[in-house]
Design a protein that fits this description.
By secondary structure, the chain is an alpha/beta fold. The protein contains 7 helices and 7 strands; from the N terminus they run βαβαββαβααααββ. Strands 3-2-1-4-5-7-6 form a 7-stranded mixed β-sheet, with helices on both faces.
Length: 224
């Protein structure tokens, strides 16, 4: 339950996490995203939930010093897989921490620093700046690579050639590939870098789910 708790969804995307907060009885929900299409999507989802008065949606940039005037804080600040796409990740972390109440919780998921991170950063930059034709070529190459990896893993684990396209992220496989290739700006950090940085701001680590690849490591902090 989130009863009596205010919830700030930083980079709300489709609004699914805000909907979860609504179903967990948060007393106030504020969903925000830099992308107006995400704001539209979240507003549509809010409409399907009956347009609750205590759930509001707005377009905004977490990097903005004037995001909330007058400044205010929340019981739960939830920045799940969004801060590393702002182009200024550490400042985005700072702003998210700033909006967390004393005793409040800060949830975040940030891409893990991996030996291939710099390679992926270059690929993402190229994909995001390319024309649609070049993007289709790169998407096809990436899809072929993912299918090959899936089949190799299937042979090693099951002795068969099944699989290769199955994902469990709630989106079509092609959209999942685009989501990864088009995710630029793209930043990352080790779990140690995140824990050290946030702890120095007066927060204590409660839980961590590290990622050993290029995926997101997940963190829960409490403001002291």
């Amino acid at each position: 339950t989130l009863k009596t708790k205010s919830f700030l969804d930083v980079g709300c995307g489709s609004g699914l996490h805000s909907l979860a907060a609504f179903k967990l009885d948060a007393s106030e929900i504020l969903s925000m995203d830099y992308d107006p299409l995400c704001v539209d999507c979240t507003n549509e989802l809010r409409g399907k939930a009956g347009n609750p008065a205590h759930w509001s949606v707005r377009q905004g940039d977490i990097l903005s010093e004037a995001l909330f005037l007058p400044p205010r804080t929340f019981d739960v600040v939830y920045a799940w897989g969004s801060l590393h796409h702002t182009g200024d990740m550490w400042r985005a972390v700072d702003r998210s921490l700033f909006y967390t109440k004393p005793g409040g919780m800060f949830y975040t998921a940030i891409y893990n620093r991996h030996w291939s991170s710099m390679i992926w950063k270059g690929i993402k930059r190229f994909y995001s700046s390319s024309n649609p034709g070049s993007q289709r070529v790169l998407l096809t190459l990436y899809a072929t690579w993912e299918r090959t990896k899936g089949k190799v893993r299937s042979v090693l684990s099951q002795g068969s050639l099944s699989g290769g396209d199955e994902r469990s992220r709630g989106m079509k496989w092609e959209y999942d590939l685009r989501d990864w290739l088009g995710g630029y700006p793209y930043q990352y950090a080790t779990t140690e870098e995140i824990v050290t940085y946030v702890s120095a701001k007066g927060f204590e680590l409660l839980k961590i789910a590290p990622n050993s690849g290029t995926g997101c490591s997940e963190f829960v902090f409490r403001r002291k």
